[in-house]
Write a structure and sequence with these properties.
This protein is of the alpha/beta class. It has one domain: Rossmann fold (3-Layer(aba) Sandwich), CATH 3.40.50. It contains eleven helices and five strands, in the order ααααβαβααβαβααβα. The protein has a five-stranded parallel sheet, with helices on both faces. Strand 3, helix 8 and strand 4 form a beta-alpha-beta unit. Helix 6 packs antiparallel against helix 7. The chain starts with a helix and ends in an 11-residue tail after the last helix. The model has no long low-confidence stretch (mean pLDDT about 90). The chain binds adenosine-5'-diphosphate and magnesium ion. Adenosine-5'-diphosphate (ADP) binds next to helix 5.
Length: about 240
C-alpha cells in the first residue's frame, strides 16, 4: 500500500485512476484467495498442471483435446472423462491438472480415490447417515474418482459406487481413472449386472482417453538402460 501511495504522489495520477488501480489490485487479491480456498477444498493429492505434462512422452494423449477439456465446457453438459491405462502413464496427473483448471474456472471440484470414497460411504451407511454424506459426492460440479480397479469391491461397495454414479448421471461431471478395461469391471465388482448399469451411465456422455504408453515413473531407469520394460499390449 505504501509503495502505491508513494507512486501516486510521484506520478500524480487522477483520483479515479488511483482508485481504479487500488480496486484492481484488491479484486486480483480476492480472486487469488478464492482460488486458494477452492483448491484446498478440492482435496487434491498434489498440484500439477497440463503445462507440467510432457505430451511428447505420451503420444496417445491428444494435447489439443486436453487443452480443450481444460476450458471446462464438458462440465456444463455434465459429460464424463475416463482415463484408462497401466500404472504411471499420467492418469492421475492429467486428472489433477483438469481439477486445477476447474478451480481456476470457479467450479467446485472434489477429488477422492475409489477406496476412500467407499470407506467413507460405508461408514456413513453403517451410521445411518448415508443420504447426507452422499451430498459430498453429488454436490461438486466436478467429481474426480481416482484408482478404480486396484482393489476388488464387495456387494455393498459396488452398490455405494452405483449410487454415486447414478446420482450424478446427467447432472454433474465425473473424471475417473482406471487401470482396468471395461470388460473387467464385472469381475472387479463381483456383479456384472451392476457393473453394466454403472458403465451404462458413466459412458453415455463421455470422453474415453486410453493411454497406451510407458510408465513415466520408470523412464529414468529406461534411459539408463537398467530396466527392461515389459511389452505393452498394443491391441
Ligand atoms: P497414473 O495415475 O497413470 O498411475 P501418475 O499420473 O500418477 O500415473 O504419474 C506418475 C508420476 O509421473 C507422477 O508424478 C506424474 O506427475 C508423472 N508423470 C506421468 N506422466 C507424465 C508426463 N507425460 N509428463 C510429466 N510427468 C508425468
Ligand atoms: Mg494414479
Amino acid at each position: 500500500m505504501d509503495v502505491r501511495i508513494e507512486r501516486a504522489a510521484r506520478e500524480q495520477p487522477t483520483y479515479i485512476g488511483f482508485l481504479n488501480d487500488l480496486l484492481g489490485q484488491e479484486i486480483q487479491h480476492r480472486q487469488q484467495r478464492n482460488l486458494e480456498v477452492r483448491t484446498k477444498l478440492s482435496h487434491l493429492p498434489y498440484r500439477k498442471t497440463l503445462d507440467e505434462f510432457d505430451f511428447s512422452f505420451q503420444p496417445t494423449v491428444d494435447e489439443r483435446l486436453m487443452r480443450e477439456l481444460a476450458m471446462m465446457s464438458f462440465t456444463t453438459r455434465a459429460e464424463n472423462i475416463l482415463f484408462l491405462g497401466p500404472p504411471g502413464v499420467g492418469k492421475s496427473h492429467l486428472s489433477v491438472a483438469l481439477a486445477m483448471a476447474g478451480n481456476v474456472h470457479g467450479l467446485s471440484v472434489y477429488f477422492v480415490t475409489l477406496t476412500q470414497l467407499i470407506e467413507d460411504l460405508r461408514k456413513a451407511y453403517e451410521e445411518n447417515r448415508l443420504d447426507k454424506r452422499l451430498r459430498v459426492y453429488t454436490r461438486p460440479k466436478l467429481l474426480l474418482i481416482d484408482e478404480v480397479g486396484y482393489l476388488p469391491m464387495d456387494r455393498v461397495a459396488a452398490n455405494l459406487f452405483f449410487q454415486v454414479i447414478s446420482a450424478r448421471y446427467e447432472r454433474g461431471s465425473i473424471i475417473m481413472t482406471s487401470n482396468k478395461n471395461f470388460g473387467e469391471w464385472g469381475e472387479l465388482m463381483g456383479d456384472s449386472v451392476l457393473a453394466t448399469a454403472i458403465l451404462d451411465r458413466l459412458l453415455h456422455h463421455s470422453y474415453i482417453i486410453n493411454i497406451r504408453g510407458n510408465s513415466y515413473r520408470l523412464r529414468e531407469k529406461m534411459k539408463a538402460g537398467s530396466y527392461g520394460m515389459p511389452q505393452q499390449k498394443t491391441e
